[in-house]
Amino acid sequence: MTEQKATNVHWHEGDIGRAERGKLLGHGAATIWFTGLSGSGKSTVAVALEGVLHEQGVLAYRLDGDNVRLGINRNLGFNAEDRAENIRRVGEVAKLFVDCGAVALSSFISPYAADRDKVRALHEEAGLPFIEVFVDCSLEAAEARDPKGLYKKARAGEIKNFTGIDDPYEAPANPELHLHSDQQSLEEEVEAILALLRERGIIPAA
Amino acid sequence: MTEQKATNVHWHEGDIGRAERGKLLGHGAATIWFTGLSGSGKSTVAVALEGVLHEQGVLAYRLDGDNVRLGINRNLGFNAEDRAENIRRVGEVAKLFVDCGAVALSSFISPYAADRDKVRALHEEAGLPFIEVFVDCSLEAAEARDPKGLYKKARAGEIKNFTGIDDPYEAPANPELHLHSDQQSLEEEVEAILALLRERGIIPAA
């Protein structure tokens, strides 16, 4: 660093790392990876959790179809290869947010265990917390909800390779948290996640 | 939102937006897009700026070759198509960070005006601030520095399509800021950016 000439600029030696950003923000960081069938309630839980975290002063950011599929992944379709690349890119972006000090909330069906495990490995290799939350819901309940009318279209053959209909959903074997959105209330789901985040020291005790 | 049962959870109605995250963080957000020749000093300025912003309580995050080329863009090479896709993805990621409330510092050569202009449009369409900083430096000065020994390799023909040697660098026509890294000190460069950020209300007055 050259001699300081500027009057009111406090120079910082070296790179700013995750620990320093954590001190600035006053909380820890993690990727919370919601996985589950379409209509299982992933986004509902993520939106509610984001709101509660924000009220607690925690910087949280959701990655979902709206800002990812229409943005960085706009050049990807829904074949197997593109689905894998979709999840890979979301995982890489989530990792950057965690590195930046935020709690990243990813809500994608992410039906294949191998793709999710790669994202987990990506985080763990870098020493970044990865919390897989299985938003479990029976196909019957998800299909009965059908918030976007997608199951109807899949049953009518208008959508191919639809998870749960003609494409598999591989349930997580060892998720950090297993929610049952067809049996638990939204409050219970959010409380369960908050409890885990507190337990792991990612957010301050209530 | 269903009835509140949880004891100490403050629910938040609706999505958390950029304005609310800005209130939480206490500052505005923007993408600062550094462009210039290899060796022009983009990363040096970005690292120094990140440190100064951090000392001022501003959440800043650098996107560069280390965390992007080896992460989300690890499946991209250096041909024209891949270079364009590289910049597109970085632009989309930077946009997400701005949406999250951070000051994103992108330092890539980004030699083609069309690619940079697409990133600018991406931000402007979404009402997000985009600040293009041209880190101008003569080819002679950049080549004399050659911090990574890349010019030497390019001159020896070991690297093809190297910007400034056998691939063009298209200087920005109307950058928000035009730095001259072969004439200004690092302090002067950082001060110029801070002044612009203050002027635009992105960071609080000193």
UniProtKB/TrEMBL annotation, chains A, B:
This is Adenylyl-sulfate kinase. Pathway: Sulfur metabolism; hydrogen sulfide biosynthesis; sulfite from sulfate: step 2/3. ATP binds at G36, L37, S38, G39, S40, G41, K42, S43. The active site is at S110. Belongs to the APS kinase family. The gene is cysC. Catalyzes the synthesis of activated sulfate. Keywords: ATP-binding, Kinase, Nucleotide-binding, Phosphoprotein, Transferase. GO terms for biological process: hydrogen sulfide biosynthetic process; sulfate assimilation. It catalyses: adenosine 5'-phosphosulfate + ATP = 3'-phosphoadenylyl sulfate + ADP + H(+). Signal peptide: none annotated. It is an enzyme of class 2 (transferase). It comes from the Bacteria. Its EC number is 2.7.1.25. Residues 30-179 form the APS kinase domain. GO terms for molecular function: adenylylsulfate kinase activity; ATP binding. It holds the Pfam family APS_kinase.
